[in-house]
């Protein structure tokens, strides 16, 4: 196999991983990150495609940094051994270290152990994927992997499936373009109705994913249109090419399919999941997929949601629909990810008994226990739609007999669209460590990993991807940190998000490539650590959400943009107050979908956390928060503070001019200018709206238009 071409060198540090004109940013895998490994004597032992990938990575690093790469033990001294447990004899003292590293029993399909003594570092794995992840762990450790002694430590992913969903269209959609909710250019897979076939770029992407821990992707939009539907049959070869390019990095390909495929592709008169002819069609189509792609991961389905076809057409439910596909996939070990994002998108804003937040639970909780073992119900982390602040979805506590995957959105649809700095790992960490049954009980991460209170094995994590064909992969160079952090938290949900950011900084801005490493680290933390909460401060307050502009595809403010729409995303602001009453006592009853203690906490006006108050309660503007501020004053204060914080971020970033890669600096500076402009727009529109609604002035006398 061949690796993506190397970068062009220190003068353009972090660029040109694929040989494209103008260069493609190396993200968290610049050549300099491999210097500690590449300057050592390295032995790689074992067989298999992924072991070949490990050796190729080591060989290239050693060629660039003066080390030596071997595949046979011999008598030569070594500094690092990367070996499969059954690969045969190792040189001493590596053999003794390997025995110590493997003493705790099996390491699993993706696990590895690392130990160091007497000047030798050993990474041991049971399977090739584990060795690949062990290699990238050594790269993350940098020089520390070769200093002092390390007692044997075992590493294994908490989630078996760590997946990215690409909302990439094969044809350019007339509204959503080449990539729906894409903020980094076009697709790296598709262009204008055809396969892009830039497989160097795809391989480089797979390499980035393996280095942060992602092991699965779906390659097309969950909103499956006519051309995309044919990827299952007539255009399966295009999918196979992507699978071939990603396989050397342990990334399995999945495909979004339309539930109506037997009709639109097979010519059947029905897609009824209980019809024998429909079942036979799916079985035959799936068999052909596995004949072409033996390690195919499975299907992703959006059904009976926002106009997509589904089993409701035939009087069936989601268990019937999901089990149909699961039956076809089961002989091959595949899974179906069946999205729980199902709700009435034609609501009447005057009907306050209808609540979009209730929908996923109402549809899916009654079906618990009816799904086949290879069905993964994929639920958004919150009950609405990836807002900057939502409560954890009650679905995640309601289906103990069903495999559940938690879905995040790495692409920044509602968090600044990669025009704004918004480091999302602190948000995801809060979700993953949330305990639905109360403090000390199982967490959301436990549910996703399969160690929750019920019998179901976990479905893992899934997230909407944020990359495109932009030279920086994510449009905003700092948005790369979200993709990196997603993979790392999927591997280990207990990681500190700020420590993960440190990892990303060390890899992306190696000390040898910047003028002042301490200043770079200090600046990036100052800009990014609190950026999610900064974004929250200048946008929708106290969990109410969805004050975005429909005309600009959810970018920028429009306080009433969805208030009288069919989509069910309301804030119900009037002259007396704001917020949605979701209590059991007087509202939609949504709080009753939670187990105790959260059902009572969210029901109680006095106990509900401030940051979620308007999600659960309609309150007067003068209501005093637990912080001591009134709701209206909190709105004013946070919107002024948010703008001030963005101005400080921009000022801090300017200090890095001449210190880091000029192209990176210029792109971020341009985006920070736009972020400040947009934050001011948010502040003025939101504050003005609520001043005019409430008639209550700012106690600090600041200008509100």
UniProtKB/TrEMBL annotation:
Q: Which domain of life is it from?
A: Bacteria
Q: Indicate the segments forming the Glycosyl hydrolase family 67 C-terminal domain, all copies.
A: 474-702
Renumbered residue ranges of the record's region Disordered: 1-25
**Tell me, what is one Gene Ontology molecular-function annotation carried by this entry?**
alpha-glucuronidase activity
Q: Which SUPFAM superfamilies match?
A: (Trans)glycosidases, beta-N-acetylhexosaminidase-like domain
Q: Does the keyword Iron-sulfur apply?
A: no
Q: Which family does it belong to?
A: Belongs to the glycosyl hydrolase 67 family.
Q: Does the keyword Hydrolase apply?
A: yes
Tell me the Gene Ontology biological-process terms attached to this UniProt entry.
xylan catabolic process
Task: Give the organism the record lists.
Answer: Micromonospora haikouensis
Name all Glycosyl hydrolase family 67 catalytic domain ranges.
154-473
Catalytic residues as annotated in Swiss-Prot or TrEMBL: 306, 385, 413
Low complexity bias spans: 1-16
Please name the InterPro entries in this protein's record. A-glucoronidase_C_sf, GH, Glyco_hydro_67_aGlcAse, Glyco_hydro_67_C, Glyco_hydro_67_cat, Hex-like_dom2
This protein's GO cellular component annotations are: extracellular region
The entry's protein name is: Alpha-glucuronidase
Instruction: Tell me the keywords, alphabetical order.
Output: Carbohydrate metabolism, Glycosidase, Hydrolase, Polysaccharide degradation, Xylan degradation
């Amino acid at each position: 196999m061949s690796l993506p071409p190397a970068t062009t060198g220190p003068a353009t540090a972090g660029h040109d991983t694929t040989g494209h004109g103008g260069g493609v940013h190396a993200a968290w895998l610049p050549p300099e990150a491999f210097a500690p490994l590449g300057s050592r004597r390295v032995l790689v032992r074992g067989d298999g495609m992924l072991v070949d990938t490990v050796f190729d990575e080591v060989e290239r690093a050693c060629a660039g940094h003066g080390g030596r790469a071997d595949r046979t033990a011999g008598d030569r001294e070594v500094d690092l051994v990367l070996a499969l447990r059954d690969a045969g004899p190792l040189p001493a003292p590596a053999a003794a270290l390997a025995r110590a590293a493997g003493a705790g029993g099996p390491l699993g399909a993706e696990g590895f152990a690392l130990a160091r003594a007497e000047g030798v570092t050993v990474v041991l794995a049971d399977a090739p994927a584990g060795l690949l992840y062990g290699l990238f762990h050594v790269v993350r450790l940098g020089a520390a992997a070769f200093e002092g002694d390390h007692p044997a430590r075992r590493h294994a992913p908490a989630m078996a499936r760590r997946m990215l969903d690409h909302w990439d269209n094969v044809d350019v959609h007339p509204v959503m373009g080449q990539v729906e909710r894409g903020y980094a250019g076009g697709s790296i897979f598709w262009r204008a109705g055809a396969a892009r076939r830039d497989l160097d770029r795809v391989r480089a992407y797979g390499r980035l994913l393996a280095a942060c821990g992602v092991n699965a992707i779906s390659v097309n939009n969950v909103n499956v249109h006519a051309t995309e539907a044919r990827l299952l049959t007539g255009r399966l070869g295009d999918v196979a090419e992507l699978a071939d390019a990603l396989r050397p990095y342990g990334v399995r390909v999945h495909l979004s399919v339309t539930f109506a495929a037997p009709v639109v592709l097979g010519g059947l008169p029905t897609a009824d999941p209980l019809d024998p002819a429909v079942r036979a069609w799916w079985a035959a189509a799936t068999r052909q997929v596995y004949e072409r792609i033996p390690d195919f991961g499975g299907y992703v389905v959006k059904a009976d949601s926002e106009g997509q076809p589904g089993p409701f057409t035939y009087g069936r439910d989601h268990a019937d629909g999901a089990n149909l596909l699961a039956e076809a996939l089961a002989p091959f070990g595949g899974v179906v990810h069946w999205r729980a994002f199902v709700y009435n998108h034609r609501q009447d804003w005057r009907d306050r008994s209808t609540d979009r937040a209730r929908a996923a639970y109402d549809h899916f909780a009654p079906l618990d226990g009816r799904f086949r073992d290879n069905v993964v119900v994929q639920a958004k982390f919150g009950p609405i739609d990836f807002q900057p602040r939502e409560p954890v979805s009650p679905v995640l506590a309601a289906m103990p007999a069903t495999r559940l995957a938690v879905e995040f959105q790495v692409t920044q649809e509602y968090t600044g669209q990669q025009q704004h700095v918004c480091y999302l790992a602190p948000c995801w960490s809060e979700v993953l460590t949330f305990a639905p049954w109360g403090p000390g009980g199982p967490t959301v991460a436990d549910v996703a990993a399969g160690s929750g209170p019920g019998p179901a094995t976990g479905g893992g994590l899934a997230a909407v991807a944020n990359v495109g064909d932009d030279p920086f992969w994510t449009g905003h160079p700092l948005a790369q940190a979200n993709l990196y952090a997603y993979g790392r938290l999927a591997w280990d949900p207990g990681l500190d998000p700020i420590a993960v950011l440190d990892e990303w900084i060390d890899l992306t801005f190696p000390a040898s490539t910047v003028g002042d490493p301490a200043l770079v680290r200090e600046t990036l933390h100052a800009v990014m650590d609190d950026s999610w909460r900064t974004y929250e401060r200048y946008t929708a307050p106290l969990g109410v959400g969805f004050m975005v502009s429909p005309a600009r595809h959810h970018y920028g403010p429009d306080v009433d943009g969805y208030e009288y729409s069919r989509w069910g995303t309301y804030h119900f602001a009037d002259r007396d107050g704001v917020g949605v009453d979701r209590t059991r006592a007087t509202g939609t009853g949504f709080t009753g979908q939670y187990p105790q203690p959260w059902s009572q906490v969210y029901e109680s006006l006095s106990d509900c956390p401030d940051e979620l108050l308007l999600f659960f309660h309609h309150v007067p503007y003068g209501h005093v928060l637990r912080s001591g501020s009134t709701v209206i004053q909190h709105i004013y204060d946070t919107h002024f503070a948010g703008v001030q914080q963005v101005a400080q971020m921009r000022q801090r970033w300017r200090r890095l001019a001449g210190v880091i890669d000029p192209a990176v600096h210029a792109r971020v500076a341009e985006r920070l200018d736009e972020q400040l402009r947009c934050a001011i727009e948010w502040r003025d529109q939101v504050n003005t709206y609520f001043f005019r609604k409430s008639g209550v002035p700012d106690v600090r006398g600041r200008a509100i238009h």
